[in-house]
Amino acid sequence: AVTPEYAAANVVSVVSGLLSVTAGIVAILASRNLSRAALHWALLSVSLLNCLLSTACCVGLALAIALTVHTRGMHLVRGCDSSALPADARAAIATNDCPFNTTRIYDTALALWVPSMVLAAAEAVLSGRSCLVALVFRGIGPCARSYGKEQV
């Protein structure tokens, strides 16, 4: 039994990562072909979508971390219906009623989620910057006139 918060955070995280790769490829293509307007619009749309999705991923991971810390990891071992599990998931032991080893799931989940949240925040910032660059390429926005496409 997986709580919907963890499932949603995991799905958004995976989709955000895939979209970040796509945004990076489009940014490389747009930087090599400065005269193609279609690539500028593609960069703008993919970067904007990735910025929003990476922000949602960061918020979802923060929610997952907060729920895990607040419940002391008991939502992580929710699928185990054993009365042998203690109140703290960090002290839980592997039992036959649990399909996985519960001894390190709390620390491992937090050790993976915290760097993922930091990287999702970095993805959001870099996608926002790519979005601004796409706007400058198209001559839209306040900095497009003064900065110029040639300098980008």
Automatic annotation (TrEMBL):
Pfam families: BCLP. Its main location: membrane. It is found in: Membrane. Keywords: Membrane, Transmembrane, Transmembrane helix. InterPro entries: Beta-casein-like. The keyword S-adenosyl-L-methionine does not apply. It comes from the Eukaryota. It is a multi-pass membrane protein. One of its GO terms (cellular component) is membrane. The chain crosses the membrane at residues 6-29, 41-67. The keyword Lipoprotein does not apply. Belongs to the TMEM54 family. This is KCP3 protein. It comes from Turnix velox (Little buttonquail).
